[in-house]
Specification:
7-stranded mixed sheet, alpha/beta, binds pyridoxal-5'-phosphate, about 35% helix
Amino acid sequence: ETAIAEYAGVFAEKIVIGAGIDGVMDTLVKIFVDKGDEAIIPIPTFSLYESLVHMADATPMYLLRSVEDDYAIPAADIIAASTEKTKMIFLASPNNPTGNRLSGDDVRTLAESIPEALVVLDEAYVEFAEKSSAKLVNEYENVLVLRTFSKAFGLAGLRVGYAIVPEWVIGNYRKVSLPFTVNNVALIAAVAALKDKEHLRRSVELV
Ligand SMILES: *Cc1c(COP(=O)(O)O)cnc(C)c1O
């Protein structure tokens, strides 16, 4: 947690580590999404969100990214699609597969306009973007940021991911998460990868 906190520029108290973003997200959905709830998913995007929402017996509410908007998703459309049943809004930023990034202002607008829902920002590809929204977790109680060692660091097979979350989420997370989800070898590799700035730089440049 300490090494990740330093890398991400947030407090270690806000970090939970899991078996990839997939593992972290699975736990988050188990905690926060119940039968009959809704989750907003702008598509096309990473397919796991939809699967987890279905597994929770909840309803995915799809918003279609349009070529006219250059595949960006206007915050106003997300707000319009939200209801009192909306528990989560899944937003990959940069998005897989379209590459769109959400601005900090958009994240703020969403967090403030839909205070009862969690804005889940999937930053799997943040190393390829100029900016991160991780710091907004300090400002809002309903913004969660997910990161991974699977992409720019090239360690997908080791299964290490993490979430930067408001502190009130941490207790819930530890209650629901399996106690030993990440093995020591993977953690040692992850810490080493964070130190190897040159490898990261070359990997990002190459990709
Ligand atoms: C690859 C990917 C993930 C999964 O990452 P893991 O940490 O390997 O589970 C999550 N979100 C997006 C957008 C991805 O592209």
